[in-house]
Write a structure and sequence with these properties.
301 residues, binds zinc ion, 7-stranded mixed sheet, alpha/beta, globular
């Protein structure tokens, strides 16, 4: 699983910082999460192929998470895209994009599907053979969802030596990979764990931005391998975080501890601060495994 941060700063784009957007590569799928201004340029800089993006998840309709979307959708057409594109985001996103296309007399060369969200409960919004995506309802000034990306458990691995020793026919291999026991011709039952190995452990990634400190998300993100949690402010601005429905680095760390995640990635930093080290220091007072998100940084898990 690979996470590439295209942008992770709050509010306005600046010379060297970009608003929120990131790409998650999981089981050979590329998911674009949020699409702030500058996302296309950042995709180019990070050598991510536009054509590999088929699903875009938008957390909420604030500009720093959204204003790159119409540009990205338009560019896909200029590039002659024909593959379907799926956009997941708050109710209203369809109207917003279609109005911009209409007034600019533009169209798409591909089919564009919107999956509008309005539930306040966590729900499955994407599922295929290998990956499942659920919403994480967040508390912010407008309707907002985080997203939990989970790999599905793979098949069990065949213990080739054992299968040959028992002289089991190839026709039963899939049953073994699915976890089934095998009955030999003489009536002996061979239990599955003697014929197969555990599959590789599955990975999960929870994206939570923007949100005030909210323990309601803990049951949804519990035991995630990686949690990206916004940390707009440092502790000195804790009151402002509360007021604007954002979080501090320490609060992000508190959620990481309570949800028992393995890694915490910080981001959505207010541009009022010089440097990011203090975000890490404050979070590390609470939680060990803190990674600083930054524009153009990739993490492999
Ligand atoms: Zn934001
Ligand atoms: Zn916001």
């Amino acid at each position: 699983m690979k996470l590439t941060i295209l942008g992770c700063y709050a509010a306005t784009p600046r010379t060297l910082t970009n608003p929120t957007s990131q790409v998650l590569e999981i089981k050979n799928r590329l998911f674009l999460i949020d699409c702030g201004e500058g996302t296309q340029v950042q995709l180019r800089k990070n050598k991510i192929k536009f054509s590999k993006i088929n699903h875009i998840f938008i957390s909420h309709l604030h500009g720093d998470h959204l204003y790159g979307l119409i540009g990205t959708i338009s560019t896909f057409s200029l590039l002659g895209r024909t593959t379907d594109l799926y956009v997941y985001g708050p109710k209203g996103i369809k109207e917003l994009i279609l109005l911009q296309l209409k007034l600019t007399e533009s169209w798409t060369t591909y089919d564009l599907f919107f999956h509008e969200l309005e539930s306040k409960e966590s729900e499955i919004i994407f599922e295929d053979k290998h990956v499942i995506v659920k919403t994480i309802p967040l508390k912010h000034r407008v309707y907002t969802n985080g997203f939990l990306f989970q790999e599905k458990p793979a098949e069990r691995k065949l213990n080739v030596g054992a299968v040959q020793d028992y002289d089991i026919h190839i026709a039963y291999y899939q049953k073994i990979k699915n976890g089934g026991d095998i009955t030999l011709d003489n009536g002996t039952v061979i239990e599955n764990d003697k014929l197969s190995f555990d599959p590789a452990p599955t990975m999960s990634y929870a994206f939570c931005s923007d949100t005030v400190y909210n323990e309601d998300i803990i049951p949804i993100i519990e035991n995630a391998d990686v949690l990206y949690h916004e940390s707009t402010f440092l502790e000195s601005e804790a009151a402002l975080a509360q007021k604007t429905l954002h979080s501090t680095a320490k609060e992000a760390a508190r959620i990481a501890v309570k949800a028992n995640v393995k890694h915490l990635v910080l981001g959505h930093y207010s541009t009022r601060y010089d440097g990011l080290e203090r975000f890490k220091e404050e979070a590390e007072e609470i939680f060990q495994n803190v990674l600083l998100g930054d524009d153009g940084v990739s993490f492999e898990f």
